[in-house]
Amino acid sequence: MNLADSEEMAAHLLMRGYALTDQLDQADLVIINTCTVRDHAEHRALSLLGRLRKWKREKDGRHIIFAGCAAQRLGEKLKKTFPYLDLISGAREIDHFADLCDRSGLFAPAPGGEADKRGVTGYVTIMRGCDFACSYCIVPAVRGPVHCLSSKEILTNAARKAQEGHPEIMLLGQTVNAWKEERKTFADLLNEVSALPGVERVRFVSPHPAFITPQFLEAVKNNPKIARHIHLPAQSGSTKVLQEMKRGYTRETLLQKIHALKECGFAISTDLIVGFPTETEEDFLQTLTLVEQAGFSAAYCFKYSPRQGTPAAQLPLLDEKTLEQRLDILLNKVRGLAEHAYSRHIGQQATVLMESPHKGRTSDNFWAQTKKSYKIGSVVQSEVSASDGTLLFTRD
Ligand code: 5AD
Ligand code: SF4
Questions:
Q1: Whole-model pTM?
Q2: Pocket perturbation via mutation, ligand 1, pick of 130, 132, 137 by most ligand atoms within 8 A of CB
Q3: How much distance in Å is there from the Cα of 132 to the middle of ligand 1?
Q4: Phi, psi (5° rounding) for residue 146?
Q5: pLDDT of residue 112
């Protein structure tokens, strides 16, 4: 989501005559697009902002924009600590970013320039916000309730991305598969997007397990353009903790869905939180066994971070040593997952969407190196002959 939002903000500035650079000393403008989901993410953004004070002083005409969820949460009070900050653009303002730039008086409104068209993936936001209320999570407070874009708007945006040379469309939303429009569901939308001219593959992030429905599975089975990878945040393997987190599913119902997804050929990656305030040793063990039973292809593990205003922030924290220990044990457990998932492909057919002449990604989201050279954006079918744990090697 942040990537897509960054792309959108950059596109507005490219139209005002800016060009992208990764060299700070060459830049006239820095946008820090922030995350506030954990305290650590917010700290990193604020520390970068602090370090930019010197950069800004070094040359006249330099500007800094602080954008995204931390900007939304902290708001105008940021200007007290960081008076040299030019513009604050909260996560909810992304749709009005152009107006915000106009009103700021910082930029010439001169139209011109072109959006950046690199990369095979075109990002398309289909919904924003979240109607869940997970007890640890700050997202509903900063991003607000669900707002779905219309299918007309989404299809127009996706068709434009495909025409611009992005054969892979990534549909985005905080609870992306909650998307709906009257009688249309997310499954219908996936089919419609994948039928657009030039679209070879459709991905989406981040789904919620609650919307993995039989109808969704049916759509996937009949549509090979829907990528066979899903990032499905589990958060915990303990039904008791899941209930306290207000996730709306149990370990058993989650495992059933995971099983059904695997039957459709999905590789499944996940997010896990350790040290939720009520997590006992037994609950933590349940998370460890979930990793074994689910056969995830990757797991991102986070230490619980209390977020101001969330229900879980009222609960007493586990001690730091326990948190560190549990994170360490879990990280050790998940370390070999990717390598194992790569090796499972040997001898299997892979569908590779080429991102460079010799390299691309499979439908289930693994990197593959081809023997022959292919056009970027083309789709190659080939058998996997070997893997080094980070890359698949195909016969063709
Ligand atoms: N503490 C730790 N991890 C969190 N996440 C969300 N909120 C918190 C929190 N308060 C994690 C979840 C989510 C991912 C984006 O960040 O695992 O899926
Ligand atoms: Fe946060 Fe839960 Fe919404 Fe995900 S579903 S954004 S974890 S409240």
A1: 0.92
A2: 137
A3: 14
A4: -65, 135
A5: 52
